[in-house]
Structures are given as structure tokens and as C-alpha cells.
Amino acid sequence: MRSSLLFLTLAVWPALAFGAERPNVLVVLTDDHSAPHVGCYGNKDIRTPNLDRFATQGMRFDRAYVTCPQCVPSRSSIMSGRSPIDTRMTRFSAPLPADVKVFPELLRAEGYYSGVAGRTYHLDGSRLPAESKAVFDRHHLRTFPDRLDFVKTGGTNAQMIAQFREFLDAVPQGKPFVLQLCSSDPHRPLDRKAIDKPHDPGSLTLPAHYPDTEGVREDFARYYDEIARFDTAFGTVLDELDKRGLAENTLVLFMGDNGASQLRGKGTLYEFGVHVPLIVRWPGQVKPGTATSELISGEDLAPTILEAVGVKTPAEMTGRSVLKLLRGEPFEGRKQVFAERGAHGSGLPTNSAQFDLGRCVITPRYKLIYNALWQLPYTPVDFARDPFWKELQAMHQAGTFPKALDSLYFAPTRPMFELYDLESDPAELHNLAGSAESKAVEKELKGTLQEWMILQHDYVPLPVPPAANR
Questions:
Q1: What is the pLDDT of residue 346?
Q2: Nearest Cα to Cα of residue 323 among 340, 343, 345, 303
């Protein structure tokens, strides 16, 4: 009987079997970074040599999606392995409930030294007015200082790197560590002198859904500059692991926390809003220079990390471990991923940038977007007051904005449903919803989204009402 129990223990806890050294875990997040904007994803304009080299040492995920095109809800999923709806995190300024466990907290209970550093982790409330701060204090809603060993924040890459070194210095001898390290790049405002040799606005290839103006090009180039600045900082982080002899036993995951604050990006459920870069390096476990087109959700990171280090995944986690995929073992991938859109920031709901309600389902080929507040026109998140956007508004009012793109940004309302064939229309320019040829696909995806929303106890009206109400 004892031998049987020993066998079961070793089978369930492979990372701990025979006293094997447990891997360190480092999760590095950029802020507002879409998948196409890394060199190793096929972008010939942007300069990201460290990320590109990192991809040759691990696995690149070509279809990684976050659960929300906004920092707070997305990071709650990355940390908890659950959707923002499931964890009550769709209101941007909400604190992560104390009963929702996060992967660094779970690893801490298993003997890991745990922490967060760099740009704010966003899960203890955001930009709180005095009235909210009083509530947070009275009910002890800021929980991360109690959950983890090391909790620090800093806005610049220099501060991020300094805190990273401080964290490594603080790790007790003989203990493995787990750290989420966050950069502020390429979050707005976009610096004009982020790097010594800025990208040339005139030479950049603009995305298909971008109008070609000098202001748009200059803004896009500064976005690239901030990514390049992060790339340098990321190289420093990797060098630090090498110098300390930690690289070979550290599982490193790099990911964008949500899509770029660019046109049809952050705050929207289009590809620029939810499709992000994800690269994983784990020497001896992940084959170098590999890539996958399997669908991955932001909520898959936590269960993957837990399984990788031999910690049992809590039943409440809805994410799926991709450890077998990382190791090159037989793997049954996802058939779809889901994302939601709710409040943004801490302001009043004056436009769709501040408040929107949307849901989407993405399959290997198609995406269905459900705009519950279809009456609200598009308002960009974080740059509605920037000069280049005001120039585009003036062009629209003057009738000089490109006609093929005008309805994407300046239609008085949006469609309630949008359906895109991502294979033939990756820029999402041709809405197939309501068309006869796509009727079967639209019906199937609405049913899939309906099931997910029901199981999530979603508060948004379901996309398929009873026949009498259609």
C-alpha cells in the first residue's frame, strides 16, 4: 500500500520527485503591446533584437489572446487562471477579491519566494478617489502585500530593472522564486525620445486599417520606439539571469498584457486589442526555435506555470495548461477562446472608451464580436485627445477621410454583431454578420458564446434571445 501511495505521489508531483530542483518562474509583461509588433512575428520594421533572440531559444505563440483588451481585467486572468467575469473583475478599478488565488500566491504556499515588480500589477484598485480609498482601507481590500513576499512598483524601465535585482538579492538561499515583472512600455503617453535612433515614420508599413497621414505615422513610430526601449530592458533582465547562473533553471514567459493603444486596438475586441505576443523559454524542456498556431488564452498561463513546477491546479481555474505543448508532447488544443470588454479607467461612462459592454469568441478561423452597447460609436482608449486623432476627426468632418475606412471609426453606431474570417480578412475590414453565406457560422458562434456566457454567470444580455424577442 505504501509503495502504491509513493508511486501516485511521484506521478502527481513530477517536478518534486526524487528531490529534483524546482524551476524559478519569471513572467515579464509589456503594457499595451499587440502581436504583430515584434520582429520575430514577421515585422521587418521594428527593432527588437533581444525578443527575437529570445524566440530562437524557446517557443513563439502565434495565436495568443488575452481575456480582455484592458490592463486590469486581463492581468487578473493572467494571475488567476480565470476569466474577468468569473472573478468579478470587469470593473476596471475593482480589487481582486481575496478569495481569488493567484499563481505566485499558490507557489508561495509551496515554498517559493514570490513577488511583483515594475509597473503596477493593477489588482489592488486603480486611481481611487478619496471615497474609494476610505472603503478600501476600511475593508482591507488591498491584499497583494499580504499575498506575496515582495511587492514593489515603479514606472520606468530603470526602476523595473533595479527592483528585479533587489528581488533576486532578497531570495533566500535554496529557495526557488516566482516573479511577475512589468514594464510601462509601450503604454501612452509615447515618448518622443524613447531611443537614440528613432524609427523613421516615413518608412514604416502601416496596418491595412490605418489612414496614411503624417500624424498617424509619427505616432506609430513612437509606439515602435517604446517597444524597442523595452527590448533593451528585456535584454538586461535576461543578462542578469545569466550573470547569476539562473538562466538554465528559470522558466521565462514574455507576454503583452493587452493590445496596443492604437487604432482599433486597446479597448476593442479586434485583433489589435486582444491578440498579443507570447514567447516561452525553458531550457531543457522547451525546444528552441519552435512556434505554434494553437489558440491560447491569457487564463492559460497560471495553470501552465503550476503544472510546470508540480503544483496542483485549483479546480476553479478555467484556464488550460499548455505544458504538453511546450514539451512537444501530444496536445489537444482549444477550439475557441473568449474575451470581454467592460468599464475602462475610473471615470464616468461618457463614451465607449470609458464604458462599453462587449463579448467575443475566436476560433482558429473566425471571430464573432457581440457589441451589447451597439448604440455607442467608437471612441479610442488613451488617445482621444491626441493631435493625430483630432486631425482624423477634422478630416472626417471635412469629407477628406478615406472612404473605405470612414465607417470603421466614425459611424454613428456600431453593428450589434460582427463576424470576420480571420484567414481571408485578418484586418477585419469585411463584416460577414447577417450575410446568407455565413449564416451557419454565425449561428454556431452565437451558440458557443451563449454557452460560455451562461456558464460564466455573465450579466450581459445573451446574444441568442427567445424567438419571440428576436
A1: 85
A2: 303
